[in-house]
Design brief:
Chain A is mainly β. Chain A contains two helices and 25 strands. The radius of gyration of chain A is 19 Å and the shape is globular. Chain B has 237 residues and is mainly α. Classes of the chains: A mainly beta (333), B mainly alpha (237).
């Protein structure tokens, strides 16, 4: 809690709206609060000397991202952002105020179109999905050196990654192959494939984004069927919900998905310019967002990630930024 | 879907109407409803929704029409759905490196002799409220020409661009040197143009030995003689 407040004040200094921006708006009990925006490199702080030079020379604050899309966070507070415009992965730490950029220039292994990122804490690896190379690259998290390269023949277009830290399994969604692949990280081999193309429960039609919650359940955005499917670790279909439409709660162009500590499902939607929050039965709780460039507004949001403190990170590619929200829990008695 | 509508679907499939947009291949589902709606449409062509937004394009005065924004709701996700613009290229997440869309055509080509005057534009390249949009070049229902194009290249390009390859390079099309999406270079040139040139022009004279990779700084690949210091190529192979 202290850490959240501290981070909030750091971000609030420059980046957050003057008045607290919450959803749902008052007089309802607020559930989601906007706590900041990451857009310029100076949003992480800059030294007074740098600032002086910048003000005297009249330089503008440089952008931190060009086209951020895939995003994930780890337990130690690092934010990993795949930026296709920079052709790199930007690694931020808001606590230490550091920014590192992973852009490999190794022969044959350079990042072309990094689509999604995922972190395996136990193996200290950062995985990057490279759909154009039909591969998933594994980098050492501290040295940023290339360690692994998974490229199986079955993969057509690996676009999204999720890691089950309990079972050491990397889930890879193949949007053009219409399936989910399971990679055993310990034995470094493909162990299973779930689903094929179709509209029945358990089948997929362009599974574009996936995520794993704390109990190991896998959530799949089944984009072509306009629904969310939830699987347990053994591959049993637990739940599916959703239909195409423009009413609140329906899916128009669903994108990134994430789950918070209480099991709420957050799904970005490019057409609605925001994200919607559901429970596992598909009941809509809240819509957050709006069209524009202001605080809390999006133009075609991309991916979403939620960290241990229930902070919500949403990439906003056309506004070249990341927006950070906080889920406000019920106060415990 | 009502089975009595199957013959409509059959006819449409036979005409190639669906083209590459077979997101919902299972025709028992609401196939057209992915994009269109019968009632309460919010954009042109009975498109079901209108994602208003401020999209940065290559020019500051560009305003995207609602149909182009509708396209971008899928085609800007960095390639999740798998739409390929070229063999190794995707429509990225911004439009700064693509063929300009959203620009007012009449204002832009005023007093420029190398463009078709706006009133003479053929109907096969429809502007959206005077601006170029995705549907100016692409027809989302067609699979006749390449990536859902309205006409074959270079005829499609020549509807607007009067700048023709006059004598040199007549055997090439525009897209052999230019690329329309994710180009990363001025004039929408391919990223490795020097390599593209040297695919044919293998033997360079000795005067070129110093700087063999910047062909276009002296040569004009669109003209036989004239604008620059040297005639481009004396003999075409």
């Amino acid at each position: 809690m202290m850490y959240t407040l501290l981070l909030g004040t750091i971000l609030l200094n420059q980046l957050a709206p003057q008045e607290p921006l919450v959803w749902p708006p008052p007089p309802e009990t607020p559930r989601i609060q906007m706590i900041g925006i990451l857009a310029r490199t100076t949003d992480l702080g800059e030294s007074w000397l740098r600032r002086l030079v910048r003000v005297l020379t009249g330089q503008k604050e440089p952008w931190m991202f060009f086209q951020p899309y895939g995003i994930c966070v780890d337990d130690s507070g690092n934010i990993y952002v795949a930026d296709q415009g920079l052709r790199s992965v930007v690694i931020l730490n808001l606590e230490k105020k550091t920014r590192r950029v992973l852009h490999t220039s190794g022969r044959g292994y350079n990042l072309q179109w990094p689509q999604d990122v995922a972190v395996w804490e136990k193996g200290n690896l950062l995985f990057v999905a490279e759909p154009e190379q039909r591969a998933v690259l594994g980098f050492d998290r501290t040295t940023l050196k290339l360690k692994l390269r998974y490229a199986f023949e079955e993969w057509i277009r690996p676009v999204s990654l999720a890691i089950d830290p309990e079972r050491d399994i990397l889930y890879v969604s193949d949007s053009k192959g219409h399936a989910i692949y399971l990679v055993d990280l310990e034995r470094e081999g493909l162990i299973d494939k779930w689903g094929e193309r179709g509209s029945e429960p358990g089948q997929f039609n362009f599974p574009t984004h996936i995520t794993v919650d704390r109990e190991g359940r896998l959530y799949v955005v089944d984009m072509g069927n306009f629904r969310i499917q939830v699987f347990d670790p053994s591959g049993e279909l637990l739940s599916f919900f959703g239909e195409p439409g423009d009413r609140p709660g329906a899916f128009a162009r669903p994108r990134g998905i994430a789950v918070d500590s209480e099991g709420h499902i957050y799904v970005c939607d490019a057409m609605f310019a925001g994200f919607q929050i559901y429970d596992i039965y598909g009941r809509l709780y809240l819509f957050v967002g709006g069209v524009g460039t202001d605080f809390g507004q999006f133009s075609m949001p991309g991916d979403i990630a939620i960290d241990q403190q229930d902070r919500i990170y949403v990439t906003d590619p056309f506004n070249h930024r990341i927006q950070i929200f906080q889920y406000l829990k019920e106060p415990e008695d | 879907m009502n089975p009595s509508n199957w013959w409509i679907i059959g006819v449409l499939v036979a005409q190639g109407v669906f083209g590459p947009h077979d997101i919902r291949r299972d025709l028992t589902q609401d196939y057209c409803g992915v994009c269109h709606t019968s009632h309460g449409a919010k954009a042109g062509f009975l498109l079901s929704l209108s994602p208003r937004g401020e999209i940065q394009t290559s020019s500051p005065d560009a305003v995207l029409d609602s149909v182009s924004l509708f396209c971008l709701a899928c085609h800007s996700d960095g390639g999740n759905i798998g739409q390929k613009m070229r063999s190794d290229r995707l429509l990225g997440l911004s439009l700064t490196d693509d063929h300009p869309i959203g620009i007012p055509y009449a204002l832009r080509v005023r007093a420029r002799p190398d463009y078709t005057p706006p009133l003479h534009l053929p109907e096969s390249v429809p502007l959206k409220k005077g601006r170029i949009g995705c549907t100016t070049c692409h027809d989302p229902h067609s699979k006749k020409e390449g990536p859902m194009l309205r006409d074959a290249r270079p005829n499609l390009c020549r509807n607007c661009h009067l700048l023709r390859i006059q004598d040199a390079h007549t055997f090439l099309t525009c897209t052999d040197c230019h690329q329309m999406h994710s180009a990363w270079q001025t004039s929408l040139l391919k990223p490795n143009l020097a390599t593209t040139c040297s695919e044919c022009h293998t033997f360079l004279p000795e005067s070129h030995a110093r700087n063999p990779w910047e062909c276009e700084s002296c040569h004009n690949p669109h003209r036989k003689t004239g604008t620059k210091h040297f005639p481009p190529i004396k003999k075409m192979p």
